[in-house]
Amino acid sequence: AESPGSKIASELLCIQADFKPALTAPVTSNGFEEIEAITVIDILRRAQINVTVASLTDFQVKASRQTVVIADIPFNSNDFNYDAVILPGGMPGATNLSRAETLSHFLQTM
Fold first, then answer.
1. What is the pLDDT along the chain (110 residues), one digit of tens a residue?
2. Where are the alpha helices (DSSP H) in the chain?
């Protein structure tokens, strides 16, 4: 007899076998919450998902607790073609993201 756990495990293996690496992009701005960005970036990269960190401002972005992260690319909605976009919160990072007209327009047209 098959145990319930083995059925779940076999379904997970099928999901993993069919998985294709996605392109994801956390979009950061000054004041973002470290846990909401760095942890997500780390977990996705461990899962071998392609992650490109984009910044609304400079390449060096300062988080809410003064951690400095260096973005891979500047955010440019014209050249932005990703499977997923991650918007780390935190204050004032969430406010900065919400005030970025190019990001707002991009998200509305996704």
1. 555 444 443 344 433 333 444 556 667 788 888 888 889 889 888 888 888 888 888 888 888 888 898 888 888 767 777 778 888 888 887 888 888 888 888 888 87
2. 4-18, 34, 40-46, 93-99, 101-108
| Terminal-to-terminal C-alpha distance of the chain | 47
**Rounded Cα distance, 68 and 20, in Å:** 31
Within 13 Å and on the Cβ side, how many CA atoms surround 98? Answer: 7
Closest CA to 96 of 25, 26, 31: 31
Query: Phi/psi of residue 101, each to 5°?
Result: -60, -40
β-pair partners for 92: none
